[in-house]
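Sequence in, structure out.
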Amino acid sequence: MMADRDPVQPLHEPALPVLDEEAVWVHDAAERFEDANAEELLAWAIETFHPKLAISAAGGVDGMVLIDMAAKISSDIRVFTLDTGRLPPETYQLFEEIRERYGIRVEFEQPDGEAVSELVTEHGPNLMYTSLDLRLACCNIRKVEPLKRKLATLDAWIAGLRREQWKSRRNIAKVELDRDHGGIVKLNPLADWALDAVWAYVREHDVPYHELFDHGYTSIGCAPCTRAVLPGESERAGRWWWEQDTDKECGIHCSVGLLGSKTDSERAAAPSVTDLVAVEASEIATPLARDDEPEEVEA
């Protein structure tokens, strides 16, 4: 079963200006490959962009499917990961399996050590639990900035995003212009896949996968920010599970500023539900002032 896009919403696109002809070319490619299978898109991408093309892998099962497909097309496909310094040990074990199974030397991109040290010294190692702003600051230093540096060396990158994963991914195209990263091309070959189809491929092709998936996890991220999900929860419910009404994104796949999650200062300034209820109640049942009391009429 495949996941469809929401026809009411526009295509997912990050936001930096690019040349019109580039946008037209990418939209044409998106339309061309919308109904193509993932292997066809990968083969075209490898032929078009290699060697300045790489798969982004973080341990998710989607990324492993893409690696398996691409390795069957090209023996020298490139794979990179963002080593945040807070990954679970099982993630490193998976990358060892990638090396052994496919002969791929995963390229590890790491954050600026001085920036991490300053942030942790100022706010503590578990600052992400303190506020949304600090969580996003942590994601920015450990993930967003290293990704920017990596993508500055590439012409295109491949991600394992799927439309059914989360509301902010509902309208991704299979070929996009990544305006957040200098207008390079971003490819989402599994955009229309459902989770069941991903796991069916893994079983059929004996693809290695992250050990935590056998322990109730449905999404893989940094160890402090990811937990197993409960029955009935969404696929990304285990990411930053303590946050309410946020977009469950870190900023590497879309600009956090465009997502709609309010910052802590905006949340603090907004009236609470209790305040709104109190105002409505006071407007409905304001007692009469003393001067407004009706006069007695003499009999």
